[in-house]
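step 4 of 6: structure.
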Amino acid sequence: KQEVTQIPAALSVPEGENLVLNCSFTDSAIYNLQWFRQDPGKGLTSLLLIQSSQREQTSGRLNASLDKSSGRSTLYIAASQPGDSATYLCAASTTDSWGKLQFGAGTQVVVTP
Amino acid sequence: DAGVTQSPTHLIKTRGQQVTLRCSPKSGHDTVSWYQQALGQGPQFIFQYYEEEERQRGNFPDRFSGHQFPNYSSELNVNALLLGDSALYLCASSLGPRTGELFFGEGSRLTVL
């Protein structure tokens, strides 16, 4: 069974600093891995999708990497802004259960002005 | 282009009652998945519907059932509500049952008293 862990559960950084968010998973038979953002009481907004054959994906200030051998994905957010304050969730599907995303509990990020 | 829409946004029920939640997928999407998110946790997969059939199911009791209509919209039904069913219920849509990028709605917040 795929298990996804996100550490730390929360972090606070000053505006302008780069953010590094970690995600680890137990089953390396990844089908794909997706990063989401969630604002309080709201739904999930897709940030980046990494297919199993890819090593990284980039969108604007966001870059996500995938290392299946070590069971890790990292989300980098460059030059953080107060508007980046939210909870960030990673989720992975596996090749034998590709229709199901297994989520981590998320990292709550606060960017202070 | 309308994204994933869910209704109702909030509702309050009492123990033992039944509830129906509704979801319209993103335009062009034919697959709908449902997730339950308890406060402070990551979403948990309930089930996925494709071609009007339940394709995959998570670890939820039979009190949770669903349906997909020919226009790809979907309903989630929960019978004999328990206090522990209080959560944010999220609907996600995708193109095809093999998860590419999932797009989520804003969710339905269910409170069971």
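step 5 of 6: annotate
 - The interface with chain A takes residues 4, 6, 31, 33, 35, 40-45, 48, 50, 55-56, 58, 88, 90, 92, 97-107, 109 of chain B (CB under 8 Å).
 - Chain B has a mean pLDDT of 94.
step 6 of 6: archive
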